[in-house]
Input
Amino acid sequence: MAHKVLTRFKERSSEQQEEVREWCASKVEPYISFLQSLDAELWLETQNTCSELKTSAEKKLQALGKDLGGGGNYHILYFMTRYLQAKEVVETGVAAGWSSQAILTALQKNENNGHLYSSDFPYFRYENPESLVGYVVEDELKENWSLYIDGDENNLPRIEKDIQAIDIFHYDSDKSYRGREYAYNCMAPYFTENTLIIFDDIQDNFHFRDWVEKTGHSYKIFEFENKFVGVAGGFLEKTE
Output
């Protein structure tokens, strides 16, 4: 545990974080323009659906009266799940469940029996923290959802047993370099030439930069709520 804390402290030094943010900012482009270029009609659907999602989630969280944190760029997740007609989606990091709700809503609309596998670890600052994971997710969507809450190192090997080929991989859990590397290496055998890979909060360290340089993947960087999202994978290369 002490080693983990020390590693994260080094990664999140103000000097390095400033350097990482500068690199992200130099590569960033508007995600709305990218999604519109793929399918303008689907982008309109995404806007409407995500607006409803936001209203419903905020109402639930306000009634709960607890801060469960925000979500990733759920617009991208909804759009790409629909656009790719995804069947197997894996995400790490659930928290309140913004991203889970977006993906599951898209899977339901796809009507192809798609499934979401989610890995998380509860925040123990609240009583009964397990009950708060994915709090905003509607009950009617949970039939196509497998949620594991024992941390990535325990959850991902379990998820491996149930998947064949990942259409979308969304990483939003342990923000350390090591945590990102572990999850990617664990899931990589299930990536195909069409898999879309999304890393949230890439401004925390140079993992995303180092990874795309090492693998040679084409990539895009988008900004969302003053944070940066890195997108790469086989699908993206086919759009260029």
